[in-house]
Design a protein that fits this description.
By secondary structure, this protein is an all-alpha fold. It has one domain. Helix content is about 70%, strand content about 5%. The protein has a two-stranded antiparallel sheet with strand order 1-2. A hairpin with an 8-residue loop joins strand 1 and strand 2. Helix 2 crosses helix 3 and helix 2 crosses helix 8. The longest helix has about 30 residues.
């Protein structure tokens, strides 16, 4: 039972990180109808910015406190992501409103490759580390209930708490603030929102900026766990089954879908992997997504599209 709980908790914590990346996709798609294939590149670019500025700031200013240096690097990277998001919306997507989905898809692919290239130009192409003080040592919990306790990684716990706090903050923002309600109105009906005076351009800029902050937090966590390298851009591919499972237009779906994928990957690898030769964790999420595409393409929480003829 203890081993099952270890696997389950590990899956839940990994699932929270998947949800964080998927959230960026959902936010942008709900507000603007754009499926942002550049989200993975945004995660990479944000992680590169934070990693490099946390190295440069002590050299430039003589800052010796690593907490202060990392905090300042996070703020600078956040400002950079705000600027990047604003430029993307203003210079590219604003001019592609009401274009075909294929046109928007190609635009976000181009943005993704551009961010990867300019990130390499400005920040370099080596593997960098982000040290935000997350504890690396494992810890035993519930030792009073199970003999030997349940082994969990402190870093995974902290990462899951950070991701959960951000998701909770965004939920409060969307539900309780005037801007959040405007964002939900735009997501429900662009034309109706515009007819009552909600400026679509400003809302789209806000959404892209929020997605940039989400990318920064995701990049910070994944960079701390895996190191900042260009393969980090592929983390967005891990979020695709999450949004297919949860629904492309549902914020709760992104969260629950991420948890289901994370737990399913870990449990299937541990309990089914020995029977199929291992490696099931790599393809489990995509097979599950394919099943949903066949039988429930709108996902668990997505809106069912009904075409009237």
């Amino acid at each position: 039972m203890a081993f099952f709980l270890e696997t389950l908790l590990g899956g839940l914590m990994t699932g929270m990180l998947y949800s964080l990346v998927a959230l960026g996709f959902v936010l942008i798609f709900k507000a603007s109808g754009v499926f942002n294939f550049a989200q993975g590149a945004m995660v990479l670019f944000a992680a590169l910015a934070m990693a490099r500025f946390s190295e440069w700031l002590p050299e430039w200013s003589g800052i010796t406190n690593p907490w202060f240096a990392n905090g300042l690097a996070f703020v600078i990277a956040g400002v950079i992501m705000f600027v990047v998001a604003w430029l993307i919306e203003r210079l590219v997507l604003r001019h592609l409103v009401n274009q075909d989905a294929a046109t928007l898809l190609m635009a976000t692919l181009g943005i993704g490759y551009f961010l990867e290239g300019i990130g390499q130009t400005f920040f370099g192409s080596d593997i960098y580390k982000i040290d935000i003080g997350m504890p690396k040592d494992p810890v035993f919990i519930l030792d009073s209930l199970f003999e030997g306790g349940v082994l969990v990684n402190k870093e995974d716990i902290v990462a899951a708490i950070i991701a959960a706090a951000l998701v909770a903050g965004l939920s409060i923002f969307f539900q309780k603030t005037k801007t959040g309600r405007a964002l939900r109105a735009v997501a429900d009906d662009h034309q109706a929102a515009q007819s009552i005076g909600i400026p679509l351009g400003r809302i789209w800029v806000i959404v892209w900026c929020v997605a940039g902050v989400v990318a920064l937090v995701a990049g910070m966590i994944w960079g701390s766990k895996l190191g900042v390298q260009f393969s980090l851009a592929t983390v967005a591919l891990r979020a695709l089954p999450v949004i297919i499972l949860g629904g492309l237009t549902s914020v709760p779906g992104a969260i629950i879908g991420g948890l289901i994928i994370g737990v399913g990957e870990k449990l299937s690898e541990v309990y089914l992997g020995p029977f199929v030769g291992g490696g099931i964790e790599i393809w489990f999420a995509y097979v599950l997504a394919m099943v949903f595409l066949l039988f429930r393409p709108q996902g668990l929480f997505g809106e069912k599209i009904i075409d009237r003829v």
